[in-house]
Structures are given as C-alpha cells and as structure tokens.
Amino acid sequence: MWDPGRYESGFSFVWKHGAGLIDLLNPQAGEVVLDLGCGTGQFSAELAGRGVAVIGLDNAPAMLAQGRINYPKLKFILADAAKFELPGQVDAVISNAALHWIPDAGAVLECVRRALKPGGRFVAEFGGKGNIEAILEAVTAVVPGAVNSWFFPSLGEYATLLEAHGFRVTHAFHFDRPTQLEGERGIHDWLEMFGSDLLRTVHASERSAVLGRIAERLRPKLFRDGTWFADYVRLRIAACI
Ligand code: BEZ
Question: N vs C: which end of the chain shows fewer Cβ within 10 Å?
Fold first, then answer.
C-alpha cells in the first residue's frame, strides 16, 4: 500500500510539521524515546539530532526498509502500534501523524503505557475531529458509500480515553492547520497516496476521472493562489503515567 519513494518526494510536510511536537516532548540527552509510526525515519532522525536514543516503530515493511537505508545507525522495529511489546521500557513515546490510521486507540494506549517507565511521557499529534472534512465530503459526493475508517477523535474523547488507560493529560490542543500540498496536482497526489482505502470501490479504469471530479468539487474550498491546501485539523496531546 505505501510507496516510500513517492511519500518522501511529495509529502515531506508530514515530518516537517513535527518540530513543535518534539519541543512539547522536551527530550533530554540520553533518554530513550520510541517513535510510534516512524514511516521512513525522518522524524526519528530529528529526535536523534536532539541527543536521544530513538527506536522507530512502524508496521509497513516498505517504509521501514527505506528508513533503514536512510538512517542505518538508527534502531527500527517492524511491529503493529496496537500490539507491540518492547524488550525494555522507555522514557517517552512520541507519535507524529500516525495514530489516525489505527481505529483501536485503546489497544495503542495499552501498549504505550506498558512501554513507558514509571513517570514516562507520551506526546502525540494526529488528525482530530473535523480533520479533512471537506475532502471527505467531496469524496462521498462523488463516490457514494465511500467508507472513512480513520480515527479522528475530539479532544474530550481522546483525553477521556487517555485517563481511562491510566494517563494524566498535561496538555491538549485541537486546532486547524491547513496544510500546503505540493504542485498543481496536489489534491490528486494526496488522494492517490493516502486514499486507497477510501476509494477502494473505484475501478482502476475510472480512477483518474473520479479524482478529477473530486478535485473540481474541492477547488473552491481548498485551492488558493495556485496552491492546494488539505483541511487538516490536529489533535496534539501530552500525557504522563
Ligand atoms: C492526516 O495527517 O491528517 C491524514 C493523512 C492521511 C490521511 C488522513 C489524514
């Protein structure tokens, strides 16, 4: 499903927007930090640059293989964020733009809690309630019955879930972050990269025409001054145990 080459060349905004999340974590030199959903490793490398020992974890073999090529000195683990167990506990877990892919959020939090040392921190940013609402509306209008299986919780829902799993929530933000896409075909590329599940009922022979119709529907809302913007809404949280 994932195409690491395409991901790295056209979607660098995913990890470039993560710097503020690392500031929120405030990692200390020598700490061990798990990067949950590390993709091709750029965000893990940013963390390593701040002096911490990073473990990158992802369930997509192709992405992880590319991460190992990109950053041979970093440690990577192929595992499912809702089922993993680490050999030892870590000081912190961080996750950037990954948790909306995993509907079983409770299972993720169970694994995160078990992975943390006493007093350990968990910091995450991902799609919150209202994320890509315009994109989903346009897709559903053009492809009736398209199923959205992403997890975009409200701040209240996610904070409650964290508390139910033994975390103390120290920061929680829910904010709009329109995100610039690359090029004239930005929204097509976004849908091709991330929308395969959403568009699974569309036959390959019709895909290009369908993407064109979705883009035309979105143009008045998401195309400004020659640039496409995805209507991202982020949930950013920090919690500890
Ligand atoms: C996001 O980062 O919000 C996102 C990315 C891909 C698909 C859905 C949401």
Answer: N
